[in-house]
Amino acid sequence: MQMAKKIILDLGQISVSKTREELIKSGQQKFQAVSVEKLTAYQEVKRDAVKIIEAVETGLIPELLPLRRERMLQNTFSFYRGTAGLMDFDLANQVHTGIPVLICGDAHLGNYGFYASPERQLLFDLNDFDEARIDNWENDLRRLLVSVYLAGNENGFKNKKLSKLLKKVSAAYRAAITYSGSLKLMDRFYLSPKVQLLAKIVREQAGGEFEKPLTSVIEKATKNDLNKVLRKFTTLNADGHRVFIEAAPRSVRVSEKKMEQFKAAFSEYRATVPESVRVLLLQYQITDVIRHSVGVGSFGTRCYLLLLTANDGSHLVLQVKEALPTRDSFIPLELDLDLHREIGEGNRIIKAQKIMQAASDPFLGSLSSGQRSYYVRQFRDMKGSFNLEKMDWSGYKLYAEVCGLLLAFSHFHSPTAPMLQGYLEETVDFDKLMAKWAVRYAQQVEIDYEKYKEHVSH
């Protein structure tokens, strides 16, 4: 069956030739056409959640589905994390501003974390771009707000407090849009989410209440280096060679045929990284590969770890993750996802990540193997995240607001962002109405969760 080729991450959609003032005015005109009241008028969803989830599952590894379902059914927030495609389907039927920016596509609270810049500075920002695409900016904000409500519920925070927090997160987003719009273009380009900035916000707004958990996570992230990865995930075999440790079904050594496929695709990957990294990688060869599943939403997709051995006997571990097409309303539910697979999906993800992050993993690249597309990054190097379940109210509140601020910074990398600035300048009850929409959708997630739980139990 021949499918029309879809342009993946067409940056022409956000390429503009207007001045900032003209773009702001255009955003104000968008507001006249789509008021906040229209934008936040909740459109009842009409679909079978279980059917949509099952359509996604058909493209996953069958033997991992029981573990995936177990992870999704831990609580409502876990279910939400694992059903980005379901929300994409629902968002396609909501009202939109018609202002396109490059969005993360899955900006929930759990997709923010620490990582290292090429200069080995610790940064904190959005760190998952599997669903990245050009779309309406409000889709990201909606995804974030609903996650704040659901994760907070799991922590036992009261609904009234969470509803107020949603307004504050929305307000933080708006304030950061205004601030970004006030900067000159190059100043905005060099704006970096360094941990020092996060620590400064913490000291100013929360004092010592949040300082301890922040310090703890920073220390943990900085200790997540290659040596720790090698100690935890590898061992020496009978021949004295370093290999990965198997732990089926989550971690399984691949066949010789699969390993040879990755070796053949390695030169393609090298062509997608900076020249300095490319030259470095010429001194490594792949010596072991395992399929290793991670996360919730990605669990069940084809994820691998590559063990590279250098000519001096040292090692490097890279993570290779399957890049599926974005699961939105353009993909008919009755069709297999494979029919819509594009070899360029991995490139879409790394391109979006490099644009939306102030600095990215220097090993970030892509490759294709066995008619599937993948993106590549260094595994667990200086990476870390907060444990949302262990946060007290003051810490959770601040964390959520910081995520709202960082989301706005990410959106303002798009040339069309001044339109968003113009739209928000005209709003009055935006925070209250957007929070109300998020609470209503969170209730739908809870309904879907119960239906899916019932489905799995039968």
From TrEMBL:
InterPro entries given in the database record: DUF2252
Domain of life: Bacteria
Protein's name according to its UniProt entry: DUF2252 domain-containing protein
The species this protein was found in: Liquorilactobacillus satsumensis DSM 16230 = JCM 12392
